[in-house]
Amino acid sequence: MWPVVVVLCGLVLVLSSSPTSTQAGGGVPIVAPVGKDPSTSLYTVTIKAGGHDLVVDLSGPLHWSRCPPAHRNFPCLSSACQAVNRDIPPGTCTFTSKFINYTDPNCICPTYPYNPITGECGITDATTFTLSATALNGAQQEPVTFMALGACSTELLYETLPADSWGVAGMSRLTQSLPTQVTSTFKLPREFALCLPWSGGGSGAVIFGGGPSQLLSGVAAQALSENQVPYLKSSTNGAYYLHVTGINVNNAPVTLPREGALDLNAGSGEGGVILSTVVSYTTLRSDIYRALLAAFDAATSGVPRAPAVAPFELCFQASSASASALPFPGVDLLLDNGRTWSVASVVQVDDRTACFAFLEMTMISRVGWEPAALLGGFQFEDRLLLFDLEKETFAFSGPLAGGCAITSP
Ligand SMILES: *[C@@H]1O[C@H](CO)[C@@H](O)[C@H](O)[C@H]1NC(C)=O
């Protein structure tokens, strides 16, 4: 414990105690509700005291949100300052750090929030936030509050977020992400489960330090826990990459442009399949998209076509009442060890039209590396995703009959 006096804009904040103060949670999982913003289709988590949501970014390294004018600061040469900046992916936002004089005793710790929707960076104060969630203690649910390190946002950065969102909850595999901080604070296993809600209704959930047993029956939870695949990592970011070796449409392999078309080059960060909560529909590099579209087109030759509804290219006549009964072919991702993951292939866009729910990547990403695919939120809504940050593995369920509702403790 070191008392520190920081002078900022005439405010004098007297700080004591260590940067991440721990509050007892008793080693039980911590859960927070996840919703879907109807206007942006972004997923939001309610974890902030004061009732404001944060946008869920599975690849985000950091927690950032609006700060009151009088917020806690850290000196540049403090361990908290080192910690909060340890895992900011190089080359994304840190370019502004050359303006910081770290040896100046008045230097206030900066950090670099990143807006995953616009690709914009900020340079702002590092601070601590008081967050709130629910501890799942058997059948009992108890409110808990806790501290997390993060970044104050700037006006510019949150302007593009949903109206009720005050920032971004970074859920990456890195040391300053929310799952890492929450599980460390509550001394929980370094894992979390995520269930994105379907836009049609219901609530989703993120469970820190907990696994499938809060959302699945004992047997299904056991099966899921035993069915993990390693996730891949890139040196350029904190995203979770899936090792996808191929794609099936209607159980037949799609002819991809070349061997290893979906592979990640872990050094350069090129290629690979990223699980993304900030793109709505799975977005594929042009060559892969064209191959998949052609396969789906051929496999649906018997289904009457409808005029295309932007941003989709291939649409079908399908009433919402009969959509689930229609013979749309499945799209399966082929993973290691003969496993497949079936993802949603069509989306109902109005009462008479369903569209092939994949998009072509058009923009070169601003960060300089281009994935082969961004697996979008729609493709894994109402499914349970389990991330084990210790073992570096990932598990997934099929569509949950009861949605993401927390059923058993
Ligand atoms: C950084 O701060 C130190 C201590 O105040 C000062 O001596 C030094 O000149 C500063 N460096 C620059 C580049 O401003």
UniProtKB/TrEMBL annotation:
- Alphabetical list of PROSITE patterns matching this protein: PEPTIDASE_A1 (PS51767)
Keywords from UniProt, A to Z, are: Signal
Mind listing the GO molecular function terms for this protein? aspartic-type endopeptidase activity
Q: Could you give a single Gene Ontology term from the biological process aspect? A: proteolysis
Question: What Pfam families does the record point to?
Answer: TAXi_C, TAXi_N
Instruction: List the signal peptide residues.
Output: 1-24
All residue ranges annotated as the Peptidase A1 domain in the record: 39-397
Family from the record: Belongs to the peptidase A1 family.
What protein name is recorded for this chain?
A: Peptidase A1 domain-containing protein
Q: What is the lineage of its organism?
A: Eukaryota, Viridiplantae, Streptophyta, Embryophyta, Tracheophyta
